[in-house]
Amino acid sequence: QQEEGAKTSALGNEDDILSGENPLQAARPDPWKLVEQAAGQPAEVADSLLLEAAELFLDQQLYSTAYSMLEEIDKQRLTEEQQFTHSLLQARYAMLSGDTARATQMTTQLSSRRTMSPENYIRLLELNATIAAQQLDFRRAVLMRLKLDALLSDGPRINNQRRILSTLERETRLFEADQADSLDSSLPGWLALADLSRTQGLNESTLFGWQQQFPAHPAQVFALSARAGNNVISSRQIALLLPFTSRLGQAAQAFKA
């Protein structure tokens, strides 16, 4: 656990880099149960379960376990789409374990494929966005996440939009306003929203004018404004829980004093 934690911390503290989060996973089944279910199943079904388990191990930052799982899968018997999934997971493992060069080389090769399942396209976009952020190419990371946004829904989409907004709030010179629309139709609205958040904050009154200007924009502004509001408060107020009624009660009391 210490080794795998060290690998994660070595990647930096940028939002995209920190998360091993997988946008495809809304509910998170136990990967070991998937491994158990794979036993005795037909090859194609078993391989799908093992690939899903390996992906969940990556989500849980159990990188060595995920790597072993990927190595044990007989790639020769996988379907073409399963082979593509396997390669994407290997590239993600390389990125999460700090081998950005190998991850970049693999994703470049994988991106040349003309057809793939929607799930694998999401995996590829997420991986490209994360690698770009790790390389401090935040412009490319944002463009990847804008493509990704239309393919997601619910919680994963809100998380993706938070990444877009936080990057644009922080990196103010990624895009020229007069060129933004040619890159992505939603980008002018994102730039205006980031500027609004940075200068005035996001609340009901400030968002009214923005919504009038960008009525069909895909940003889920109320979820994003809740996040922005919490960030403002957390920079000024800290709540500290102390274990007064536990065996550490005396230490807690001393800390409070």
Description:
There is one protein chain. This protein has helices at 2-9, 15-18, 31-38, 43-59, 63-72, 80-96, 100-111, 118-134, 138-149, 154-170, 177-183, 187-199, 204-213, 221-234, 249-256. The model is unreliable at 1-20 and 229-236 (pLDDT under 50). By secondary structure, it is mostly helical. It has 15 helices and no strands.
Helix-strand blueprint:
Elements: H1 2-9, H2 15-18, H3 31-38, H4 43-59, H5 63-72, H6 80-96, H7 100-111, H8 118-134, H9 138-149, H10 154-170, H11 177-183, H12 187-199, H13 204-213, H14 221-234, H15 249-256
Care to give the gist of this entry?
This protein has 257 residues and is mainly alpha-helical. It is 68% helix and 0% strand.
Q: N-to-C terminal Cα separation, in Å?
A: 35 Å
Radius of gyration: 21 Å
Number of strands: 0
Shape: globular
Please work out how many helical segments DSSP would assign: 15
The secondary-structure element order is HHHHHHHHHHHHHHH
Q: How much beta, percentage-wise? A: under 5%
Q: List low-confidence stretches.
A: 1-20, 229-236
What percentage of residues falls in helices of 4 or more residues? 55-70%
Biggest β-sheet strands, sense, barrel = none
Going by helix content, strand content and strand pairing, the class is mainly alpha
Average pLDDT figure: 84
